[in-house]
Design a protein that fits this description.
The complex is a heterodimer of chains A (232) and B (264).
Chain A lengths: L9 H38 L2 H16 L2 H11 L4 E4 L2 E4 L4 H27 L2 H9 L4 H31 L11 H12 L2 H30 L8
Antiparallel strand pairs in A: 1-2
Helix pairs in contact in A: 1-2, 1-4, 1-7, 2-4, 3-4, 4-6, 5-6, 6-8, 7-8
Chain B lengths: L6 E10 L2 E11 L4 E5 L6 H8 L7 E6 L2 E2 L2 E3 L5 E3 L5 H5 L2 E4 L11 H11 L5 H14 L15 H13 L5 E5 L7 H16 L3 E5 L3 H7 L2 E6 L2 E6 L1 H5 L5 H10 L9
Parallel strand pairs in B: 3-10, 3-11, 8-9, 9-10
Antiparallel strand pairs in B: 1-2, 1-4, 4-5, 6-7, 11-12
Classes of the chains: A mainly alpha (232), B alpha/beta (264).
The complex binds adenosine-5'-diphosphate and magnesium ion.
Chain lengths: 232, 264
Amino acid sequence: MTSLLSYLTGEDGRNILSGLINTCILWVIGSGLGAIFGFLIAVARRYGPRLIDYVLQASVEVIRGTPFLVQIYLLYFGGPYLCLSLGEASACLTLDPFEAGILGLSVYGAAYYSELFRAGFEAIPRGHVEAAETVGLDRWQTLTRIILPEMTMLVLPSMVNMTILLLKETAVLSIISVKELKFQVDIIGNRDYAFVESFTILALVYWALVEICGALGRAAERRLSRYRFAHS
Amino acid sequence: MSIVPAIRARGVVKRFADLEVLTGIDLDVARGAVTCLLGPSGSGKSTLLRCVAFLEECTDGIIEIDGEPLGFGLGPNGERMRLPASSIRPVRSKIGMVFQQFNLWPHMTALGNVAEALVTVRRLSRSEAHDRAMAELDKVGLAKRAGHYPSELSGGQQQRVAIARALALEPRIMLFDEPTSSLDPELTGEVLNVMRSLAETGMTMLVVTHEIGFAASVASKIVFLDHGRLLVEGAPGDVFGKPRHPRIDQFLDTYLDRGAAGLI
Ligand SMILES: Nc1ncnc2c1ncn2[C@@H]1O[C@H](COP(=O)(O)OP(=O)(O)O)[C@@H](O)[C@H]1O
Ligand SMILES: [Mg+2]
């Protein structure tokens, strides 16, 4: 059995590192965009017209109700058949694997993040908003000064959780040949029939990333812990 | 010329779907005096206060603040009509409100809570707002706690910060909705004392409370609400003195064991 460490040096090491970097890029951009889209969805559903709420609700249900693997297949292989024509010009959703990966991950994340934000909105006591109203804050000021900061503090722990889940979902992207960590490790494993070694490396690296993410989350929570709701 | 009351409600009705919570309230709240609103739970006290604060729109009737109609006024033919949204803000800014649940913003310190509207609404500079907020906290005895978050303050201290937050905007009228009802008995005193000193400065106050002792000693007028109707109003001596309305007798039986018997 080849030593684990030998895979971390030379050509293999460089490939694993480049896979790791790609995984991190996919993860950070995917969850960042996912959180932004998710937030916009939650705001649109809460403050927008009823029809928009229904449409978004249905979309969120579909995404939450189907495996990410299936979604990413449909997006990558089905995308090119999705065309929009305006007069002469027409454009199809033809994406390279990396683009499809980022888009898929963002949409998948957005569905879950939007539900977190919605729960966060619901959890803010109505009285906090009414207090803002009685001292004369307008709707925008109430949103930015009161609702958003309070919601951030309420949803932070579940946001960290969801972000960790998204990291693990990036491994699925290897099936559309995104050159992320699992893709690179697969190549080595197949070449040397060293599946145990390569997947051990894979597990350890994901675990390390999850721990880093968890530690950042806990640090942020500690900073916010003083803001915890005063019991009343 | 007759004196314009601070709050003047005429025929105020509030319905939630089929439920008529206020059934036509006529009420005058005098300037510079404390009016206490009593009544059993569910009689509509909070709803009336919330209509005056424009947190609820009443279904019918007119409310005037310092003679200016709030939200709804009378048209040329005496019909009730909705006033333009822009007319609401200046009238509303005359009113400060204190809630049973304090409703401090948990992500801001005591000072931040008081200074927030001074900066965002009144457009004071940070340092002016800071000084004003400190002065208000000092008045409620909490200057030393300015840097604490609500979660680090006792209920009584939180409510005093909430009072300072409302006072910082220099309202003409202060509304209190059961300000001590969620406090432990040993903490109600500090809040009632702040309210007493505020009354002594001549602030117009409309107070919903179950503290009969406070009502009897500080209020110049008691208003008793029952099933959304204004049942009795008058000076504390008249309302609490004998002979009493039987509903008031009943009500006092429920609340008098709060150590207020000696005051009546
Ligand atoms: N937003 C609302 N929707 C429906 N019913 C309400 C609402 N607010 C209050 N009520 C009802 O109105 C009645 C009076 O409530 P409230 O004004 O809170 O009474 P009080 O403050 O005197 O205890 C109660 O029966 C209550 O259930
Ligand atoms: Mg009430």
